[in-house]
Amino acid sequence: MKKFLKRMILLILVVTTISGLVFRKKISLCYIIAKDVISFKNNIHSYDDLNFDATEDMDYKNLVYKNTNGTELSLDIYTPLKKVYKTSPVLLYVHGGSWVYGDKSIPQAITPILNIFRQNGFTIISTSYELMREKENFEKQICDVKDSIRWINKNQTQYNLNADEIGVIGTSSGAHLSLMSAYTSNDEFQDDPELAKYSSKVKYVVDFFGPTDLSLLDTSNLNWDLKKIFKSAQYNKDISYKYNPINYVNSDIPKTLIIHSKTDSVVPYESSLRLYNKCIEVTGSAKLVSLDNAVHDLSEISSNDVINLSEEVLKFIIKNSPLF
Predict the structure, then answer these.
(1) Are 288 and 260 in contact (CB under 8 A)?
(2) Domain 2-320, CATH class in plain words
(3) Separation of alpha carbons 84 and 321, rounded Å
(4) Domain spans of the chain?
(5) Which PANTHER family is this protein grouped with (predicted)?
(6) Which residues are within 8 A (CB) of 224 and not within 5 positions of it... i.e. 6 or more apart?
(7) Are 116 and 37 in contact (CB under 8 A)?
(8) CA distance 134 to 181
(9) Which residues pair with 78 in a beta bridge?
(10) Are 66 and 192 in contact (CB under 8 A)?
(11) Burial of 148 by CB count in 10 Å (0-12 exposed, 13-18 middle, 19+ buried)?
(12) What CA–CA distance (Å, rounded) separates 98 from 210?
């Protein structure tokens, strides 16, 4: 997980640096952004210099967005550092961890990157979901992510959020939940009766190495926790259809950027390729960024992959957010 985050930091740095150079005449904050990026890069001499302790830089910590199934679920809000828009666009982060591990904490190493987005008027929200224990519970986790989006709609006035400008970024299992949340309709996967009154629609979704067809996963060499999860799923015939994002592709899905490595041995590249082909067939719109050498945690990524990925992420952000 640390390797994945480290690679993400470097990739985002390249993206933001390019954006600052290309659009400096259009964005008044580009000079500040460039200084932040250069300062951060100059102070990082190796991956070991990065601090992955949880950051406490959020403005609102552990806001409970619902309490169902006897479990309180919360989110953290990182508000804009500068007011650029009347209401702030939102970037919702959904963590990975094989549906069993992880939490919404954001490492201190990512704080400078978050500040770059926040300097441009974005609100960053990192959400939690109920982790699986003993058996699969995809239903609840998808409901949790969708309810996070519904909570944003419910509380948009209080926190000055623009509910029409919500993007979701998920990594690995978090990408699977993000896709399911983005592709399904508002009346699907409801959990909290009060939040069910609000929209779960998002404008775009960024999928980093997310499973799109669970049947393609290699479950032959899992640890004990995951073995129990997938063993329980084998007895549910609905799993193979109900919780596969690819089965929900329709003409109304949000814009999708898919990022996957051809050498990923955890989630097969074919998973993303099938999703991309389905999106093109049904909607005519999607983007697949194929990496050549990176493994699932983005380690051993080549310079060519870094450049390709950075350019595509940049174009996607330009097209689908109000930043530019």
Answers:
(1) yes
(2) alpha beta
(3) 13
(4) 2-320
(5) AB HYDROLASE SUPERFAMILY PROTEIN C4A8.06C, ALPHA_BETA HYDROLASE
(6) none
(7) yes
(8) 23
(9) 124
(10) yes
(11) buried
(12) 10
Alpha helices in the chain (DSSP H): 2-22, 30-42, 111-119, 138-154, 173-183, 224-233, 239-242, 269-282, 303-320
For residue 292, give both structure tokens: 């050549």
Type of residue at 142: I
Q: Which residues, in sequence order, are CB contacts of 46 under 8 Å at separation 6+?
A: none
Ramachandran region of residue 87, left (φ > 0), alpha (ψ -120 to 50) or beta?
beta
Would you state the structure tokens that stand for residue 19, as one six-digit string? 């954006």
Closest CA to 14 of 309, 263, 270: 309
Supply 321's token pair.
């957010």
DSSP, collapsed to helix, strand or coil, labels residue 233 as: helix
> 227-235 — which CB contacts under 8 Å span 24+ positions?
228/134, 228/135, 229/99, 229/100, 229/132, 229/134, 229/135, 229/136, 230/136, 232/134, 232/135, 232/136, 233/136
The residue behind tokens 């008027």 is 121
Contact 283, 276 (CB under 8 A): no
